[in-house]
């Protein structure tokens, strides 16, 4: 432990000789070593009052500089507590606990991402299956619609044929109806002619009879009467 302390002291003293003032006013990021809880004191020495009961390992703090002897480092916590702690408990590299915690968080995030991707994949597979089912259903419905359309087309063709036949029958009926009407008119005319002819014939017969009655005797020679003396 003493050799470690001497090594750290030498390193801190070497760093201190590079400073142009008693304290360095530059701010750097440092971390509490991952070995013990480190208290912050109000001054650069063990006799000063403790301001913080102990920073856990891996705590990030702001480093301002070293004391003249290089043993103590002036720092400030994220909560605003500024004081001194032994420089041997500071390190510039990220502590393994933080790295492990970061790796664990990254792994947890990866697990969440993987679970999300698996869920997305499952959802995509279910959606694909549903789409395939819908596609098959639509194909079947389309086939049924096609058959129904063909049936309706055939019915429409037959209906058109029936309509054409109906139109032909109606035209024939109208034509025959017209012919019947014409025949009726012709019958009426013939009947009138016949009636008129009979009337004329009767009139002629009456006239002939009258003429015969009037003029007939004149054309018939009279027979002489026998008086018995001849």
Keywords:
single chain, 230 residues, alpha+beta, SH3 type barrels, 5-stranded antiparallel sheet, 2 helices, rod-shaped, disordered N terminus
Report low-confidence residues grouped into runs of 5 or more.
1-25
Structural class: alpha+beta
Strand line-up of the largest beta sheet: 6-5-4-1-7
CATH architecture of the domain at 2-93: Roll
Describe the structure.
The model is unreliable at 1-25 (pLDDT under 50). This protein has a domain at 2-93: SH3 Domains (SH3 type barrels), CATH 2.30.30.40. The chain is rod-shaped, with a radius of gyration of 69 Å. The protein has 230 residues and is of the alpha+beta class. It starts with a helix and ends in an 11-residue tail after the last helix. Strand 5 (72-76) and strand 6 (82-86) form a beta hairpin. The strands form 2 sheets. The protein has a 5-stranded antiparallel sheet. Strands 2-3 form a two-stranded antiparallel sheet. 61% of the residues lie in helices and 15% in strands.
Outline:
The protein is of the alpha+beta class and 230 residues long. It is built from two helices and seven strands.
Set down the secondary structure blueprint.
Blueprint: H1 2-17, E1 28-32, E2 38-41, E3 50-55, E4 60-66, E5 72-76, E6 82-86, E7 90-91, H2 96-219
Antiparallel strand pairs: 1-4, 1-7, 2-3, 4-5, 5-6
């Amino acid at each position: 432990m003493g050799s470690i302390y001497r090594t750290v002291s030498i390193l801190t003293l070497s760093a201190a000789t590079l400073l142009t003032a008693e304290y360095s006013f530059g701010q750097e990021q440092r971390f509490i070593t991952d070995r013990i809880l480190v208290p912050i004191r109000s001054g650069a020495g063990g006799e000063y009052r403790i301001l913080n009961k102990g920073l856990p390992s891996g705590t990030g703090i702001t480093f301002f500089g070293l004391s003249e002897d290089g043993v103590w480092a002036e720092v400030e916590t994220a909560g605003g507590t500024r004081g001194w702690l032994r420089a041997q408990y500071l390190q510039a590299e990220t502590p393994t606990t933080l790295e492990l915690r970061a790796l664990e968080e990254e792994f947890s995030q990866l697990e969440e991402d993987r679970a999300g991707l698996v869920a997305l994949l499952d959802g995509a597979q279910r959606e694909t299956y549903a789409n395939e089912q819908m596609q098959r259903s639509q194909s079947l419905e389309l086939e049924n619609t096609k058959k129904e359309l063909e049936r309706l087309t055939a019915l429409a063709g037959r209906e058109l044929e029936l309509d054409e036949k109906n139109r032909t029958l109606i035209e024939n009926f109208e034509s025959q109806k017209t012919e019947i009407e014409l025949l009726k008119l012709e019958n009426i005319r013939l009947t009138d002619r016949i009636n008129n002819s009979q009337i004329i014939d009767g009139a002629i017969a009456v006239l002939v009879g009258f003429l015969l009655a009037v003029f007939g005797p004149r054309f018939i020679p009279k027979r002489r009467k026998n008086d018995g003396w001849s």
